[in-house]
Amino acid sequence: MQQLEIDFRGKVTLEELFAAYFECRKNKRKTKNAQKFEMNYEERLIKLRDEINNGTYKIGRSIAFVVEKPVKREIFAADFRDRVVHHLVIQKLNALFEKEFIYDSYSCRVGKGTLFGVKRLSRFIRACSENFTKETYVLKLDIKGFFMHINREILFRKLQKFIESKYVVADQGLLIEIVEQIVQNDCTERCFVKSPRWKWDDLPPDKSLFNNDGSGIPIGNLTSQVFANFYLSTFDHFMKSTLKLRYYGRYVDDFFVVHNDKDYLKNLIPVIEKFLKDELHLTLHPKKRILQNAKHGVKFTGAFIKQHLIYIDKRAKGNLYQVIDKWNKDIESESKKNVLNSERFTPEEFKHFQASVNSYLGFMVHYRTYNLRKKMCQKISPRFHIRFKPKKSYTKIG
Length: 398
Fold this sequence. Notes:
single chain, 398 residues, alpha+beta
């Protein structure tokens, strides 16, 4: 029987691009790029499909800026058109990535996240210590300048091999071409710098792609987040399958190991260092190596885990206070100029403030934070009450 050959330079369909577009615009509809694209999105998507299929698609300019919270970092935001392509790629590969990832990889995954990671670490500590009856230690490590030091060549080779073996679909070759262009794109070229240049002055050199040597992928793109997770999946399997670590978990580049033997964890550090350097060209952060007794409490992804309770850490509380204080000052300063609140803040700005506060409250509601949530909601200026007030139990404002 003659075996049929598959043409792996198949085509991207308009239906796929429409699905990617509608997913992409969910949280970006108010941006200027999104609004411009939406004005004639059908024609733009047809053009984008044709460019992808005939091999003329090129990545556009990125917008570079610096954010201060939760930590100061450099962001490169892709053009909305390119974001649609990012969603198209992840739309095709995400289910396959999920099969590749270990259970205790928590970032950028449906049903996972920071809260899931905190609960897993809490469970690991309780299991390893046999409900705090045995001495148990937690080793926490962090990769130095993770996104900025991802080796693009290694990443693309891994992705190419993965797609060739797992994505057995007609447009396999076309998908590899798009992925290569995304991974190898130097977003610093022709970028529009939105933040003032002085914002970069106190940003460490290894925290900026402007100082890189050809390595690094931009923080801010969907593909970067998912590809970074994929990049470290090799490390995850090394930790779980090769080293046989039962109590291991990772959120982005922060990871932990729980064990009863303190010396075992100490001796684990050089083993981890060697693997990261040899296989992924990454290094551990020299100042973020913590080995502690679990009974003293452990910080992880915005939470502080103790024997009987999980608290919100000081940084998360401080960030919310700063958000509220900033908006309070804005609205109070304008009121002194006899400017009506409705004129000072557009409906979109009110929604932005509401979403910002609710994201923190939504995180806190999973812990015993009623008094804290109440205190924070009471700090909101009464002038905001024309739009919203705290809901019952201070779980959100609306």
